[in-house]
Structures are given as C-alpha cells and as structure tokens.
Amino acid sequence: xxxxxxxxxxDLWALTKPYWKSEERLKSGLLLAVIVGMSLGIVxxxxxxxxxxxxxxxxxxxxxxxxxxxxxxxxxxxxAMFIIxxxxxxxxxxxxxxxxxxxxxxxxxxxxxxxxxxxxxRFSQNGADNPDQRxxxxxxxxxxxxxxxxxxxxxxxxxxxxxxxxxxNLSGDIHILDIQLPGSMLWxxxxxxxxxxxxxxxxxxxxxxxxxxxQRYEADYRYNLVRVRExxxxxxxxxxxxxxxxxxSGRFTHVVxxxxxxxxxxxxxxxxxxxxxxxxxxxxxxxxxxxYFSGAIQLGGLMQTASAFGHxxxxxxxxxxxxxxxxxxxxxxxxxxGFAHALAELEAAKDAGFTRVPAPAGDGLSLTDASLxxxxxxxxxxxxxxxxxxxxxxxxxxxxxxxxxxxxRAIGGLWPYAAGTLALPAQGRSLxxxxxxxxxxxxxxxxxxxxxxxxxxxxxRIAAVLTDCGLGHLIPLLGE
Length: 480
Fold this sequence. Notes:
Elements: H1 3-20, H2 25-62, H3 65-113, H4 117-120, H5 131-170, E1 174-176, E2 179-181, H6 184-204, H7 207-230, H8 232-238, H9 241-293, H10 299-316, H11 318-321, H12 323-348, E3 355-358, E4 365-373, E5 379-388, H13 404-411, E6 418-424, H14 444-449, H15 458-468
Parallel strand pairs: 3-6
Antiparallel strand pairs: 1-2, 4-5, 4-6
C-alpha cells in the first residue's frame, strides 16, 4: 500500500476512533447496528423482488390471470415493507449523524478555544486556514459522507454476495477454447464492472485535489466578506470600497477558476459514467438472449437474470457511482486531519513564551532576560528587563514595528516566540485591554460582565457599574 494511502487511513482512523470510544459509544453503537440491520433487510427484500420478477413475467408469458393478480398482491406487501424500512433507515441514520456531529463539533471547538489556540493558530505552519469553516461545515460533511459511504459499501457487499449466488445459478455455461466455464453471467458482470471502475479512477482522480481547493477558496472568500462587514466603519472612512471590491473579486476569481476545472473534470467523468450506466441496461439482455431464444429459459428467467445482473453489476460498480462523493469525502478528511494536526502541535507547545512565576509578596510585575522574535526568526528584543512596582504607571514608547504590541501579547500569554522569566503578583487578577474593543453577541448584562457570566455579579452590581460609567439609562436594557 502506498505511503500516502497508509497515512490517509491512519488519519481517518484517528478522526473516527475517539467518538466510537467515547461515552456515546453504547447508544450510537446500538443505533448503528439497527441501521446496518435495516440495510441487510433492504438487500433481502431486493432478493425477494428478484424472485418475484421470475414468477410475474412467467405469468405474463403463460397468460395466467389468477397468478398475475396473486403476484400483484405479493408485490404490494413487499413494497410496503420496503418503504417502511427505507424511511426509518434514513431517519435513524440522520439521528446518528446529528449525535456524531454534535460530539465532534463540541470536541473540536473546545480544542480550538483551549490555551488560546484560536489565536496561536495563525502561526501554525500546517496551513490550517479558516478554522470556522472546518468546524461548522467540514465536520458535518465528514459525518454525513462517512455514514453514507460506509453503509452504501456494506449494502453493496451484502448485495453482491446474495445476487452472485442467484446469478451463478441462473447463468449458463460458456465455452472458451474447448473449456467449459460455468457462471457466464457472473463473469460478464465482474469484467464489465472491473473495466468501468479502472477507467473511472483514471478519469476522476484529479477531482480529489480540486475539491480540496474548492473548499479552501470558498472559505477564503467568505472570510473576506465577513472581514469587510466587521470593519465597515474604517473602510467607509477611508473610502476603500474600490480596493475592497478588487480584493473580493480576486478571491472570487479563485473560486470560479477552480470550479471551471471541476466542471471540466466532472464532464469527462460523466461522459464515461453515463455511457457506462446506459450500456449496463442492455448488456445483460445481450449476454442472456441466446439462452432465451434457444428455449433454455423462459421470459421470467430472462428478466430475473437481467435483474440479478443489474444488482451484481451495481454492487461491483459502487466505486464508480460513489467516486465523486469519495473525492469530496477525501478532501474533507484531509482538511479536518490537517486542522487536528495543527491543534495537536499547538497543544504540545502550549507553554511556549515567557516562563511565568509568582512574584514575591509585595512586588509587582517583573521581566528578566526577555527576548522577542517574529515567526520568521527575526529578533525584536534581546536580553531586556522590566520592573513595574505596585501602583506604578509605565508607558512604553518606540517607533512602529519595534515590538511594543508584541511585548504586551507576550506578557498576556499570546505570543509563543518569546523567552525569559515573567513574575506576576500571585494575588489578584491581570486585565489586558485589546487595541480593538470587543463585545460578545449576548445580552447587555453578559457584555458588561464578560468574560464572566452575569450571574457572577448579579443585576444590582452590574447596574451600579453602568451608573458609575454614566450609562444608567441603559439599565432597563440589561436583558436585551
């Protein structure tokens, strides 16, 4: 097995295993077992439909009216059972899907928010861009595609095993170089599907990379749209609409050009797959017709043979039918595993930056042997020291780019490219104000209390703070 494929399977297992070993494993395992059981039930009903084909078409050939109506009643019963099983299989699969997605989303969101990884991710060398899309879209896509493809594969394997036996029994012998070879229809189905699968992979292989890039370009474009919305005031004051329009147009150009590449590749694949599917309708009749016209089988036998051939060929062609979804699924798995690797690297380096120690009683903040650098290795500060006594006020001044903001980020624990020892008072709480104000999407009370919950202080204290700030008129709006 190629190294890239082994790596993909390893990443896929690392992505899938945690859920099926979590506290959800028993309920979800039972749910999955029921869904798989329903898939097997659908295969069994298809076998019964195949047998019905033989009897029904024979009744037509023999002009047996009583048998004709009896088989109509049998079909109604089988169809009702099929509909019930199909409906509840989809319903239970969606139930499992949302449970798995919820668990994965909560897990990845927690990993992203822990130890300020959401901030430090910008320094990752893994290229884990657009984490919002990977959490909100890729996780949902991964769960849906994994369940759909896995259950489809299981159903195809069971269907292949069931209908191969039927097709073998219905097939006549073929003679090749005076050698009698039984199971002619089965071998024809195997050769037909094998040839189609090989060509499908050869034609459609570029779709894996193209789908990966499409997800990335779509996320980049959406991120820039959100950025314009969040910075509407400065853009408007600068009059930067033309520049922003150019930037957005450039981002969307990537979306469009890559989509055209997907369209061209999809067109090539559809030319083949559509022709392959249409030929598969007539191919079994072409192969089985000599036995029918020779009188070896009746019309019912011909129709049952064609139906069984269709099921075997469809099962063997699962790879062809699912190729486009497999390409999208592979791209989704790559994006999620790349995100997971980036978060794992950040977790391993969570203590990077200043070494933090408690300051002696009565002392303030002190920094010794401090050095700062940029991600590319350039040094901003070396062997620096700083001491701020309790009650003392200090302003740090310097030219743009000398590292003033970076020093505050390092003291706040955000900047990993720092070394030295930082001593902070053991008692009390440090508060760092960002250059850009932030208000959470929540009630006014939650915004005032942020990052604590409003219940921590109570409405009375929050109202008093608003009054102290000259905002007493907003007190009636605390719940909005």
